[in-house]
Amino acid sequence: MSVFLAIAVLGVLIFVHELGHFMAARLQNIHVNRFSIGFGPIIWKYQGPQTEYALRGFPLGGFVGFPDDDPDSTIPKNDPDLLRNRPILDRAIVISAGVIANLIFAYFLLVAQVGIVGVPEFNYAPGVKVPEVATTVSSAAAKAGIEANDVILAVNGEELGANKEAITNLVETIQNNPNQPLKMKLERDAKTINIEVTPELGEDGKGRIGVQLISNGDLVRHRTNNIVEAFRVGATEFQNIVVLTLQGFGQLINNFSQTAGQLSGPVAIVDIGAKIARDNAGELFRFAALISVNLAIINILPLPALDGGQLAFLAIEGVRGKPLPLHIQENVMQTGLVLLLGLGIFLIIRDTANLDGVRSIFQR
Predict the structure, then answer these.
(1) Residue 18 is a catalytic residue
(2) CATH of the domain at 192
(3) Residues 6 or more apart in contact with residue 336 via CB below 8 angstroms
């Protein structure tokens, strides 16, 4: 059920994106002959007075079709309500409407989370928790006697405190002291234990002890029944997600070789969404908002086959006073589509191979 919920989230976001294009065209009386969710073979379709609505076999995208280049269309080529015959501004509105729809939808998802589920807030407790210790007995933590669920309260006599900086300070201390003994005060089963651990020198020249670290404390939720407050807090949450997403794309561009491996395809997204739905379904609002913002930002990039690529063609047309030759636009778009499909297939195969169930099969 959690997998179906995650797939449903992606399907809704794709629907919202394509609905943005569709509504922007219809509200301007621009002809639209197809509205499809998914690609490939048609599973279900309905022929309306002007538009064919369809669900297709592969729910990894969607499209809004225009009759401009449809050889079966009976609409005259000089019809002023064909998309290509409209002014640049009208076409830009249609092309960018999917991105705008995703951003607006993300905002309302966050408002709904504030009002229905509540905004998560972490109540910090003293120290840093150790959820897991490396299984190898040769790790520095294992040698020193650190166990899972221990809480590190102090290092070399300095208390870590109850704040979000505690984990950063601990990591920096460990990394900056390879092969140097550190005295740690731990809390285990309500008892205080003093140990000494010597970080090992890693390949990157930094110290490490072989543990996972998380902030110590509890997650609480604050829900508001005040609609004005919900919209205000939702706006703050929306701003935070947009800023973090843009920073993530910035890091990807500036340090591509180091961050490219963090790219996720639809399989990994569904897997993450399924885990969230299984562990805490209320977080699906935030998950959907995050994916919706990412979908919007990706689509606005000036890359072939994306909305941003089409907007780039419109910008060139505005500067030149006439569009680029149709064959050039088609060649660029087709090349971009092949590259995007290739990347999508690669990510699907890689992410599928990294799924827990699949990985365990090959490790038997």
Answers:
(1) yes
(2) 2.30.42.10
(3) 303, 304, 305, 306, 309
